[in-house]
Amino acid sequence: MVNTQMARAKRGEITEEMRVVAGKEHLDPEEIRLKVAQGLVVIPANRNHASLSPEGIGAGLKTKINVNLGISKDCANTEAELDKVRRALAMKAEAIMDLSNYGKTAVFRRQLIDLSPALIGTVPMYDAIGYLDKKLEDITPDEFLAVVAKHARDGVDFVTIHAGLNRQTVEHFKRTSRVTQIVSRGGSLLYAWMEMNRAENPFYEYFDRLLDICAEYDVTLSLGDACRPGSLSDATDASQIEELIVLGELTERAWQKGVQVMIEGPGHVPLNEIAANVQLEKKLCHGAPFYVLGPLVTDVAPGYDHITSAIGGALAGAAGADFLCYVTPAEHLRLPSLEDMREGIIAAKIAAHAADVAKGIPGASEWDREMSRARQALDWGRMFELAIDREKAERYRQESMPAHSDSCTMCGEMCSMRLMNRIKGGGGA
Questions:
Q1: Do 102 and 208 lie in a common domain?
Q2: CATH number of the structural domain spanning residue 333
Q3: Looking at the domain assignment, is residue 429 inside a domain?
Q4: Could you tell me which residues are beta bridge partners of residue 64?
Q5: Average pLDDT across the chain, whole number
Q6: Among the three residues 359, 376, 410, which one is the final residue of a domain in this structure?
Q7: Are 388 and 364 in contact (CB under 8 A)?
Q8: DSSP 62
Q9: Residue 82: Cβ-neighbour burial (10 angstroms; 0-12, 13-18, 19+)
């Protein structure tokens, strides 16, 4: 018997994870169960992730954020990455993706899973070459699946698999004239493997075996978008949409086996196409939760892509996207530093909350209302408590203290809040 969150929800069972999610979302557990059964909500919860505090991602729930980190050959400092993990957890990121592709990835991954109450995701394709110690073209389909199984046994809650890049999609891609080709790292590796071996994508060809691995450990399948646009010029093109159609077909196959699914999305998308991208995913993939990278709304802001992605993320979230992958100022430039990561998290949290206000998520608007009340009352302590980034707000206040403690150095004694409080309180100007 399959005992995933989805399979149990379909049998009418409310799991402990569903109860935890319902509590966090201030919803009835039965509502969570029904949405998990329908595939509209996922609760990534590997049965081997003992430290997990479950989160729900999907329709009617708060927009969640993911933080990417991991070890690379040029920056192989495990302790530095663990510092990022601790900072991300302290900042209450709901998910962390380990994108390590060099060295002792299994050791770092297990440390991360043991430490983290947040959801943990990976891209097993990144790990395959180093873990197997083989050239890409020499890896067999069985070995690719063995790497996925290893990640699942270790306790990973969700895995990104680019199963939609099949031979048909590849042949179509070859007939296009994309500016930035295939920018997905995992997708480009699979494309290269398929071309060198003149073979079908092993994750597409042996999709049922992949589902069996996911079902055994209750790993949520995050279906990656190998053909996501890496530039505005390539947004919403035929390659992207054709792959999305395949992902919709794979979603239904996964649901039949009780495997939870979310769909990954673009990428670089102009403002006027973001809502349409969300609507397409929801339609073609049957309402499965949508996980977006950004999207970045311009290509010309290196060093500021946390801002370009926050703009796109807020619009995508308001249109129905469920999960935002943070982007840091270092995007396209280098491995993010601890401070880059912090700025990326704050930007993503702002975007997620703005989306929740637009979607009418319970409690979202009340948070803003409380901040407005605190501002009118000039209650600085309360304002800091409510701030997304308390540390920065307090530092700015301390760096420039006003003569009148109930105002700030922008307006001083001409502070409109201060004036209105005095006039309406009968104290005069």
A1: yes
A2: 3.20.20.540
A3: no
A4: 323
A5: 95
A6: 359
A7: no
A8: P
A9: middle
Return the structure tokens found at 416: 């409109």
Total of domains in the chain: 2
Residue 6 amino acid letter: M
| pLDDT bracket for residue 411 (50, 70, 90) | confident
User: Domain containing 324: what range?
Assistant: 5-359
Burial (CB count within 10 angstroms: exposed 0-12, middle 13-18, buried 19+), residue 428: exposed
Reported as a single tens digit per residue, the pLDDT across 35-70 is 999 999 999 999 999 999 999 999 999 999 999 998
353 with 406, same domain? no
Same domain, yes or no: 89 and 176: yes
Q: What are 4's two structure tokens?
A: 């995933």
- Evaluate whether 229 touches 182 at the Cβ level (below 8 Å): no
**Structure-token pair, residue 69:** 């980190």
Residue 400 Cα distances to 160, 203, 382, 392, 409, angstroms: 46, 57, 19, 13, 7
Kindly state whether residues 276 and 376 are assigned to the same domain. Answer: no
Q: What is the CA radius of gyration of the chain?
A: 23
pTM: 0.96
DSSP for 148-206, please give it: HHHHHHHT-SEEEE-TT--HHHHHHHHTS--SS----HHHHHHHHHHHHHT---HHHHT
Q: Are residues 141 and 199 in the same domain?
A: yes
